[in-house]
Design brief:
By secondary structure, this protein is mainly beta. It has helices spanning 9-12, 17-24, and strands at 2-4, 25-26, 35-40, 45-50, 58-59, 75-83, 86-90, 93-97, 102-105, 112-116, 122-129, 137-139, 145-149, 158-164, 175-181, 187-188, 192-194, 198-205, 213-219, 222-228, 233-236, 243-246, 251-258, 267-269.
Length: 275
C-alpha cells in the first residue's frame, strides 16, 4: 500500500509539477490480477483499484499498515465497477456488478473478493474509518438521486447521480456518486467550490486514450492544476478546489469522507475569484 501524507496550502504553493502529481494524482491504481491501494492522510481515506483476471478471484486483504486482521475491521467502503462486469462476494453473499453498479460495505465484514466476467473488468474502492456498523447495500446502475445540471452555453451540461448519500444509504461518513458530461460539454463542478468539512477524490473515467482533463486544485487565490488521463484519480484536501475541463466529454466518480455528510454544504467560489 502506498502512503500519501497531508499538506497545507503553504506547502502546496511551493510544489513543482512533479511534486503535485506525486502527492495528489494517482496514476497507477489498476494492475491486472492485483489490488492496488493508496492511503492518504486526508481523513485517512484509502483508494483502491482491483482488476481481476476471469476465473481468478482477488481478495481484499488488510495491508500490514492497518494493523488489522481484516480490511474492514475498523473501516467502511464503497465499491463501483468502472469497466466490464463481474461480481463481488461479501462474507459469502454474491453481488452482480455490471458497469456502474455500486456496493456499500459496512464495518466488520471479514471477507471481500472480486471476480471478473471479462478481461479488463475494473473495480474502484473508496474506504474511510468507521465508528459504527451499517448493512451492505447494492445499488444497480442508474439508481440513486439524479440531478440534471448545467447549461450548453457554459459547456457544463451534466447528469449527477448521488448514489451513496445519507438520504439513500446509511454510512458513517462515505458519500459516492457519478457525474457524466453530455457531448459538447467539458467543464465539471462549475461553479467551483470547496468544503472544509470533508475531503474529496475524483476518479476520471470514459476518457479516450489521447484525451485529458485539466483538473484544477489548490486555494482559489492560488490555483494549481493536474493533467489527468483515463482511470486516474485526484485527491483534494478539504481546503482545496476540485473542478476541471476536458478535451472531450467524460465522466467521473466522486467520493467524499469527513465531518459533514450534507452534500450541499459547500463554500462556493465564483469564477472571478479563481486565480
Amino acid at each position: 500500500m502506498e502512503n500519501r501524507y497531508a499538506f497545507s496550502p503553504t506547502e502546496v504553493a511551493t510544489m513543482s509539477t512533479e511534486q503535485l502529481r506525486a502527492n495528489f494524482l494517482v496514476t497507477d491504481l489498476f494492475e491486472t490480477g492485483q489490488t492496488q491501494l493508496v492511503y492518504t492522510h486526508q481523513d485517512r481515506v484509502i483508494l483502491g483499484g482491483v482488476e481481476p483476471v476471469p476465473g481468478q478471484p482477488v481478495r481484499l486483504d488488510a495491508p500490514p499498515e492497518l494493523k488489522a486482521e481484516h480490511f474492514l475491521d475498523r473501516r467502511e467502503a464503497a465499491i463501483i465497477c468502472i469497466a466490464g462486469a463481474g461480481r463481488v462476494t461479501v462474507d459469502g453473499k454474491l453481488f452482480d456488478m455490471p458497469k456502474e453498479a455500486c456496493l456499500y460495505v459496512g464495518r466488520g465484514v471479514k471477507d471481500v473478493s472480486f471476480e471478473a466476467d471479462e478481461v479488463g473488468t475494473r473495480f474502484y474502492l473508496f474506504s474511510a474509518p468507521a465508528h459504527a456498523t451499517y448493512p451492505t447495500v447494492h445499488i444497480a446502475p442508474g439508481e440513486g438521486d439524479v440531478r440534471h445540471m448545467g447549461d450548453a452555453a457554459t459547456c457544463n451540461v451534466r447528469t449527477l447521480n448521488r448514489i451513496i448519500i445519507p438520504e439513500t444509504v446509511k454510512t458513517c461518513q462515505i458519500e459516492m456518486g457519478l457525474t457524466r458530461l453530455a457531448p459538447g460539454s467539458v467543464w465539471n463542478s462549475m461553479p467551483a467550490h470547496t468544503h472544509e468539512r470533508r475531503m474529496e477524490c475524483y476518479l476520471y473515467i470514459d476518457l479516450g486514450e489521447n484525451d485529458r482533463v485539466v483538473h484544477i486544485m489548490g486555494q482559489p487565490q492560488e490555483s494549481r492544476h493536474l493533467l489527468v488521463a483515463n482511470h486516474q484519480a485526484t485527491i483534494a484536501p478539504d481546503w482545496s478546489l476540485h473542478c476541471g475541463v476536458g478535451t472531450s466529454n467524460y465522466a467521473f466518480i466522486w467520493a467524499m469522507a469527513g465531518e459533514n455528510q450534507d452534500f450541499d454544504d459547500q463554500d462556493p467560489v465564483p469564477i472571478t475569484g479563481i486565480r
